[in-house]
Amino acid sequence: MEIIIQSDPQSASQVGARIIAGLIKKKPDAVLGLATGSTPVLLYRELIRMHREEALDFGRVTVFNLDEYIGLSPEHSASYRHFMYENLFRHVNLNPERTFIPDGMAKDIPRFCLRYEAQIRQAGGMDLQVLGIGTDGHIGFNEPSSSLASRTRIKTLTAETLADNARFFDCPENQPRHVITMGVGTIMEASRVLLLAFGEKKAAAVAEAAEGPVTAMHPASVLQFHPAATFLLDEAAAAGLKKHQYYRWVYDHKPDWQQS
Q: Is the pTM of this model over 0.70?
C-alpha cells in the first residue's frame, strides 16, 4: 500500500489525475472503475482540464461505476448516472456505449448483478478503480460486515451512510435505502486502486483502513492485501496515521521514474 499525503484536496486530486492520465496514454483502451460523491469531483475536474488543454483522449476508454441507488431513474438528479454525466461524461469524449452504471430500475436485480459482473470480465477487468471511503470504512456501498469476497449485489444502507448522504435529497423519505454495489471481491480484482479521502471526518476511517486490522467490519482495510493500492490524502484525512511522517518521507524520496 502506498500512502500519498498532499497539502489539500486539490493537490491530492491532481496526483490522482496524473496517474489516470498516465494509464490512458499507455493504454488508450483502459478500463476504469469510477466512484461518485463529493470526494472525486476535483479529480474529475482535473481530468476534464487535461482533456481540454492537453488532449487527453477518452475515446476508447471503458468505465464501470461502483454503485447506484435502487428505484432512481437515470434522469433523477440524485442518481449516479446523472452525477457522472454532469461531473465527467458530458465534458470529455467518452463513448456512451462504453459507460456502464448499475441499473437502479432493473426488474430482476440478482440477474442484473450477474450480468454486470460478466460485462466487467468481458471488458478484460478493471485496470484502475477509483474509491472514496465512508466514515464507517465502507468502499462502494459495502457496509461494515460485508463479505470481503463479495460480488456485485444489492445492499441495505446503514443509518450512518443514510445520514452522510441525506444532503443529496430534498426529503428524507425520498432517499432510497437500498443500492446496487460492486462487491469487495470485485473491487479487489482491479489491477490498481486509488482511494481518495479528504477532511478530518475521514481521518479515523483512513487510519483504520491503512494501519488497523483487516476485518469485514471495516471493509476498506482489505486494501492492505491489494498489490497496488494507493491512498491519496490531504493533511486532515492523514492526521490519524501513526506513520504519517514516514509516508511523506517515502513519497518525497521516490526515484524519478516512480513519481506519479
A: yes
